[in-house]
Design brief:
TIM Barrel; alpha/beta; 2 domains
Amino acid sequence: MVDLHSHTDRSDGTLPPKELVDFARHQGLSSLAITDHDTVEGYDAAADHARETGLDLVGGVELNTKFHDRTIHILGYFLEHPPGDAFRDHLSCLQTARRERNVRLVERLRQLGLSVRLEDAQRLGRSQTGRPHFAQLLVQKGYAPDIRTAFDRYLDEAAPGFVEREDPSLENVLRWIHEAGGISSWAHPGRFLRQAKLDVEALFSELAAKGMNAIEAFHTDHLPEEAARFEQTARKLGLGVSGGSDFHGARGRAQLASLQLPGSLLEDLRALSSRVAARGDL
């Protein structure tokens, strides 16, 4: 089995990288992709331990961008080798933008009458602080009964506490991944498509024309009929298919290896990566 979407405590997950590797082996996975937000530090920290335990560890990253004026997430997979310095420099700029957004987020929440401090959120975020850590803080302080409510009331894009981050353009995200020798996949498209109510094939075609390589058809959020439609449409258009749980920790809704995805999924992505490289697209 494989799981190609997971997070460590180097972004918004709860498990340290080596513990995630051990848990993946315990869950019967042969391959795992670590796809932390805006960083590859989790993969770097886990790579040697994964080799020692016999786990096929794939380097990855999850990046925010805009598509049809809505936020979407793009997964970058580095199937042959980790990304180099140029890509890591881009990630460093994104982390700076994240920190600046957090300062503005604290100001906005205080304007709404919430007593929050950046230092408290940073203690929860450790390596990287984001909205999930602010949500945890709001729950701790009694402003929301749970994480989901904290997002609904204060932190989601439609909520009064939301603060926009200056995300890179879709074209730049895809170019960065390709220049670093990776392939790109649209993460959990079901979330976007349920809200946008736009034609699936038309959107997939548009992204393919921009340079997207694959679609994350299989995800914890996707109903079986959605996953089947996304996979069928992606393959019809010559796009690859990825999938993963989007595991963040044992207490989260998404559980590692819960989708029981076959190893052929990763084999197909590696074959796609070779074809893309041979065409000179990377």
